[in-house]
Design goal:
Blueprint (H helix, E strand, L loop, with lengths): L15 E4 L2 E4 H12 L15 H11 L11 E4 L4 E4 L2 H8 L6
Antiparallel strand pairs: 1-2, 3-4
Amino acid sequence: MDDLGYMYFRDRSGDTFRWRGENVSTTEVEGTLSRILNQTDVAVYGVEVPGTFKIQKTRLQMEGFDPHQTSDRLYFLDLKLGKYVPLDECLYERICAGKAAL
């Protein structure tokens, strides 16, 4: 809640959004907030939020875990060491060749 009493929920524009795998209507949120805040009039509506996680997820799926496809740091759980180690080109090749224990 901000200084003026406004609450913000990020998802997508429209009259429904996803919460923990469930479709939730804005009227359901209005009713809940009305009861919690003891307010008669509550308005909930969707607005566009550019750059959603869904867009990022698609890009990440396309990149996979190939260190050549991303500038992000990648890590691999090395079961023998019991910790995450940086995933470099050599380790990537070992995984693809089936020589690293998954």
